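WARN retry 2 of 3 for item q-0093 after timeout on previous attempt; input resubmitted unchanged.
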Amino acid sequence: MIVSTTENLPGLRVKKTLGHVFGVTVRSRAIGGNLMASLKSITGGEVRSYTKLLEDTRRQAVDRMCESATAMGATAIVMMRFDSSEIGQTMSEVVAYGTAVITEPEA
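OK item q-0093 returned
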């Protein structure tokens, strides 16, 4: 599955637009991880456990978006974007979304 943040794909043309597609996931850190992150915020610097959590969360959202696009018969997703928000103080929601399309090589 080709996933692009752009509208056009070099060497390909959009044969058919199938519609919007998205993947969503919500993640939370365990209480121990939140305590360690709070301590890290006192001294400053990167909170690596949160960085890894958000990287994994984004990856899962993209994977779910691709599964949805594949089920629609898409060969690519264009104009892909992320959106995120907090639910309460301990959970993060990440949504990956874009437009599912069928592509073909340019003539």
